[in-house]
Records
---
Amino acid sequence: MNTMSDPTTELVLYGDAAWESPWVFHAMVALDELKLKYTLEPVRRPIAPELKQTLSDRALIGLVPALVHGDFWLTESSAISEYLAEQFAPPEYPRLLPADPRERARARQVMSWLRTSLFGLRNDRPTTSVFMRPVSTPLTEKGKADAEVLVRVAGQLVAPGKRSIASEWCIADADLSLALMRLVGNGDSEVPKHLVDYAVATWGRKSVLKYLSHIPTTS
């Protein structure tokens, strides 16, 4: 039997043993928002040659996160969440992407933008500073410029009192909240209160708390 589209087939996610990847974070949050049972396989970097070859052969791109659903292998985090949203769709499963076409397009725009931009901020405030140890070093000029762009865009997407960029929470909110937490979690003052509240609300979701619970504590 071809298990590619069989929703009862056990899911496997190859993740990040260092718990530093924002894209593994995205994939895990997506799986847990859908309340799916899956097996997590943490992968150390650099990826072992044998696994790298398997990922390249089966999923085309030898990276993590990598989702395995039966005989179907897939990498790239936004592709994974879109696949999950279609395979495990409402009403049987929670909604992962907005129902409205324009809101869904906006969510996809935000996810794409956050994967291809803000490199100065991502360098100054890496995910380790959000998930593990905050940093106190000042933002570089590029980091400051990126922070200003992030706050401007987030401010246009999230009105005071809102907890999502769409009518209800969606997976793009996980990515945008993580981007904002690069500033909030490190004590940077550039973030308006309503955006702090928005990011902190996502940080309190069960799916996010489950991801954070995997991270080893440091003294």
Note: The CA atoms of residues 43 and 142 lie 31 Å apart.
---
Amino acid sequence: MITQVVLGKFSNQCSVLVREIVPITYENWKDVPEDSKEHVWKEMLRQFMYPENANIKKCRGHVMFVVGKALRNFMYKLDKEFLQKGRTPFLKYTFVENDYWEAFARQRQTPEPQAKSEQFIELAKRNQHHHHMGMTGYAGKKLGWRAEERAQAEAG
């Protein structure tokens, strides 16, 4: 259960940091400047302790993967909940700056992102088995499932 709590806090912190540090105007995580990525990494090092024998290069790579995913999810949420409904996110997300929001809106309303969105909507329709494990994935759920199995075995 401790692993699930740590993974949840870890992914939540990644989400918070990327929202506060990285502007929403980047199309792709690969486009984000290295200094912004380094800022995120240093903040994660400040907030989480890694074992002394940990491969720091792999740890940084994992943080960058989770942060990139969190940024993509956040931009999707902004698009779906605000942009497509003609609303602004400034009350809910006070850290989103007006200039970045306007640039984000312009980017999302060009033909390329709309075509890409349609392509992925069609692709998603083919998925018959949707997963609902959240950002922690299988590893975060495994311990909880084991506890449920033990409780069911005890109950008969």
Note: The helical segments are 2-21, 34-47, 56-83, 98-108, 111-125, 137-155.
---
Amino acid sequence: MSTSAKLAISIILIALGVATRLLPHLWNFVPISAIALFSGVYLGRRYAVILPVAAMLVGDLFLGFYSWPLMLAVYSSFILIGLLGGLVRKYKSLETVIAASIVGSMIFFLATNWAVWQFSPWYTKDLSGLIRCFTLALPFFRNTLAGDLFYTFVLFGTYEGAGIWLKARKVGWQLIKNS
């Protein structure tokens, strides 16, 4: 893929990430994990790290920043998901993309809720506090999982569908040209 195509896709993905964070939505039903995964698979490691972080930073400029330990957990989880996309690239199939999306949701859930438990005053710093934190976060996990799967299907489906369409169009032009 050309650098200009990667740049155009990057701008679209960052705009999508920012817009969906700013518009009304279900908690955690946003495309940032899908953007990270997609970037890791199709654009490369550098994009897999930069794009989700850029979308988050621009969104946080409008929404407001929050505690740095939690921000570090959130941003780091998206970087890990992007790097996971690099692994998926080697074995890309519908199954591995779905599995990676689910694993990405779990990475985000575990990292961010551990950070909330560890760094906020809301929970006791013992096993019961940790269990309570993760239990109360389950509705957010449902939305995270649903959003990640939805946006993963949208991004990967659009990209793969466009590729199939472009190949078919090229073959059609070749048939017309040769007749």
Note: The radius of gyration is 19 Å.
---
Amino acid sequence: MTNYNPAINKLDIPRRILKLPIDERGYPVPKFIKWIDGKPDFRVADQKFLQRAMMQRLCWLCGEQLGRHMAFVIGPMCCINRVSSEPPSHLDCATFAVRACPFLTQPKRRRNDEGLPEDRIDAPGIPFNRNPGVSLIWVTESYQLMSAHNGTLFRLGEPSLLKWYAHGRTATHEEIMESIDGGLPLLQAAARAEGPEALAALNLAVAHGLALVPGA
């Protein structure tokens, strides 16, 4: 039997994830991860696979064909602007990710940018370099592609299911609101820079986004 990391060994690992290689720590290596010098660099997305995933409707995590329902793993800020910088996944793959990924399950964990490849391409859109502490699985049957100055973004369709997570388990209302309150000033600053119309549109989006928070 494969030796998975003790932190995830007791989780329900989807059969598609079981097909993936594992790294030296015992974590499955998602399909989108780029391998550099024979090792996976979890900080770098494989741009060739990104194009394949978009063109062939492949799961961002396991690499297999998607069905009708698509699950985006996003942060609370994306619940407001309804935009993702990453393609969708299967629901079970996405659920495993928010329960297993060290960055997603440990709110105090920070991104390590040391020694990044010089040819690395940053995610499109305006980056918020923080750990939101809360993840949202947004399940939808549709999305639209949007051109950004440095790539392509995904405009999320109406959700058929929303699942909030923190620390690898269902997030509380307080945890969700704390994350939103911490990130909202970043969106507000970007909107103010664009002008009054952008700020008014953001205020409307915030109202719609908050209505999706459980217990609101």
Note: The chain has a mean pLDDT of 90.
